[in-house]
Write a structure and sequence with these properties.
Belongs to the MIP/aquaporin (TC 1.A.8) family. The protein is mainly alpha-helical and about 230 residues long. Helices cover about 70% and strands about 0% of the residues. It has 8 helices and no strands.
Length: about 230
Amino acid sequence: MEEFDLPRRLAAEAIGTALLVATVVGSGIMASSLTQDTALALLGNTLATGAILVVLITVLGPISGAHFNPAVSLVFVLSRMMPGRDLAAYIAVQIVGGVLGTILAHMMFAQPILEWSVKERSGASQWLAEGVATVGLVSVILLGIRFDRKSVPWLVGLYITAAYWFTSSTSFANPAVAVARSLTNTFSGIRPADLPGFVVAEFIGALCAFLVVTWLLRPTPTVETAS
């Protein structure tokens, strides 16, 4: 398998996160402009997001790991699948890429370049939903890598498609995406004031998933008997 240097890995992370956010925000704008039915708009937003995740992870995964998510990058470091020295750079380019994705979506739909969201997403139920969403996402990634690496793009895309609907927060599960979505006052936005609760819940969820999966995959000690 070809090895890619850090600049190219960071570029892949920035591009992937930008395209992910552009899809989330852009499909939300498109859906809400085509229908007044919130459920139908959410369905359009969901399908586009799940589909782009399959594509981006498939084509960029071999370059950077296709994290597109600071919580996932943290878990990769804790799992020793990525050097700790790369973590800060990964998180920085993911956030920058996410913001660029919002700008790109706004430009395509003739929206203000950046605009603070006023969409309220707060409260214990929303934070719990984000924690659950992130536990599921990180667990799917770690277990998928262990048992069926080639299926990870589909596993992640399908999981996020489902999680949009079974969580009250519509499953951000990604601090970089949450930051980017605070800069769009459209269907997929989140108020900046609500960001801290989401980000904390996402990181806690990622750490919980890491601990649970590490325990699940821990080899069972074998007892040697004297012959």
